[in-house]
Design goal:
Radius of gyration: 20 Å
Bound molecules: 3-methyl-2-oxobutanoic acid
Strand content: 5-15%
Structural class: alpha/beta
Shape: globular
Order of helices and strands: HEHEHHEHEHEHHEHEEHH
Number of helices: 11
Largest sheet: 8 strands, parallel, barrel
Distance between the termini: 43 Å
Length: 260
């Protein structure tokens, strides 16, 4: 049976929430027995489609990958990101697109960036569970002038706490806090009743999320400070390809057993 929103909320302060991104059915199937939430993040624009930011991600992309992740999982709660330009304009626009995501993917919730309380409360009021996302918001990267740690000044720390309180009040069932100083995450986590899920936001949060390809070390060149690589898949894949090349070139592949 799948985890419910109530299960996730009840986990706060009892057991850390384990969240990972997934974008495909095979990866969802691998992660599903182990995680609480599978997040179909719009980070897919960068890690799957090679974009420079998440700003070019479309609703169709999120729906296609959301469907695959729901198909590949049975236990974890599946949350799908609402991409840039599909929810910020009005509560009506957000509801229409959030409904499309939920109906076409079968996911349990959507995630959106910013303390957009009118939009969050409109979705929640129409039975669409919302995970909020505050602190560093990748869809606003052009506004910040890069991926910059938030909450460094007293004023900005206060704003993040105010945003956290506002999204909880609007009805979000959990909140991702990205790229903030530990003290900010500590205050927010202690203040809110809903779980906080950190990325680059210290161990103070109620749970952690990472992009799966960062965790398994799929690329050699990209390694943000907050990422811990638990495997070096770029190395494993490189070695496998090297062996394949040797076998093809030497005529060692395919063998008799691998032929009809
Ligand atoms: O898009 C994404 O994958 C995310 C997480 C990294 C929080 O928003």
């Amino acid at each position: 049976m799948r985890k419910t929103i109530e299960n996730i909320k009840a986990q706060k302060r009892l057991e850390k929430l384990v969240v990972l991104t997934a974008y495909s059915a095979p990866i969802a199937k691998l992660l599903d027995p182990h995680v609480d939430i599978l997040l179909v993040g719009d980070s897919l624009g960068m890690v799957i489609y090679g974009m420079d930011s998440t700003l070019g991600v479309t609703l169709d992309m999120m729906i296609a990958h959301g469907k695959a992740v729901v198909k590949g999982s049975e236990k974890a709660l599946v949350v799908v990101d609402m991409p840039y330009g599909t929810y910020e304009n009005s509560p009506q626009q957000a509801l229409q697109n959030a409904k499309k995501i939920i109906e076409e993917t079968g996911a349990q919730a959507v995630k959106l960036e910013g303390a957009l309380t009118d939009i969050i409360s409109h979705l929640v009021g129409n039975n669409i569970p919302v995970m909020a996302h505050i602190g560093l918001q990748p869809q606003s990267v052009e506004k910040y002038g890069g991926y910059k740690i938030q909450g460094k000044t007293e004023e900005s720390a206060k704003q993040i706490l105010a945003d956290a309180i506002a999204v909880e009040k609007a009805g979000a069932f959990a909140v991702v806090i990205e790229g903030v100083k530990r003290e900010v995450a500590e205050t927010v986590t202690a203040t809110l009743k809903i779980p906080t899920i950190g990325i680059g936001a210290s161990v103070a949060c109620d749970g952690q999320v990472l992009v799966i390809y960062d965790l398994i070390g799929l690329y050699q060149d990209i390694r943000p400070k907050f990422v811990r690589q638990y495997a070096q898949l770029h190395q494993t894949v490189g070695d496998a390809i090297e062996s394949y090349i040797q076998d093809v070139q030497s005529g060692n592949f395919p063998s008799e057993k691998e032929s009809f």
